[in-house]
């Protein structure tokens, strides 16, 4: 008598797919790679998730709820603006250099480029990155409104600076730059914010 097929664990499959897309990027992750990583047939992957794109969208949602959601979690902790920005940078470095997963940021590296056939995915990910930038600008604008920043400070320029720095940290981590070296740039980076503080 044939054994029953292994029960499908959707959550486990999503976490395995997350690691795969993070490591190889959207276009670099083939269905064969997903079959190998998830340990289930492509037909079961399609049945569970509909398509590679739909699976990727679920993976990104999982990433933002877990590893990639550090900035939003810090923002909601109601810290002073300097503490909040420093904590976001520290947590970015810890996330992007964690020993138990791929280096860098899924949202930055998985769709850094691609062909016209995945333009919908590229546009969607660009919008997600713009939203993260805006959340940092909003943090600084709120601090400006509370009087934590000087009247002539430019919250948008500062937010763009720190968002660019976050994306740069992701690339540097992906390229193997050591954690301590990434942490060392936080102090000079924060000098721009200190100069703008009231």
What does this structure look like?
By secondary structure, the protein is mainly alpha-helical. The protein folds into two domains: 9-65, Homeodomain-like (Arc Repressor Mutant, subunit A, Orthogonal Bundle), CATH 1.10.10; 69-198, Tetracycline Repressor, domain 2 (Orthogonal Bundle). 70% of the residues lie in helices and 0% in strands. 31% of the residues are buried. The mean pLDDT is 91.
- Using the alpha-carbon principal axes, give the shape: elongated
**Overall pLDDT metric:** 91
Strand content: under 5%
Output the number of helix runs.
11
GO molecular function: DNA binding
Keywords: DNA-binding, Transcription, Transcription regulation
Domain HTH tetR-type: 7-67
Organism: Pseudomonas wadenswilerensis
SSE layout and pairings?
Blueprint: H1 10-28, H2 31-38, H3 42-49, H4 52-65, H5 70-75, H6 81-96, H7 106-109, H8 119-145, H9 155-174, H10 179-184, H11 186-196
DNA-binding region: 30-49
GO molecular function, one term: DNA binding
Pfam families: TetR_N (PF00440)
What keyword list fits this structure?
HTH-type transcriptional repressor ComR, DNA-bd_HTH_TetR-type_CS, transcription, 2 domains, 70% helix, Tet_transcr_reg_TetR-rel_C_sf, 198 residues, 11 helices, mainly alpha, Tetracycline Repressor, domain 2, DNA-binding, Arc Repressor Mutant, subunit A
In short:
It is built from eleven helices and no strands.
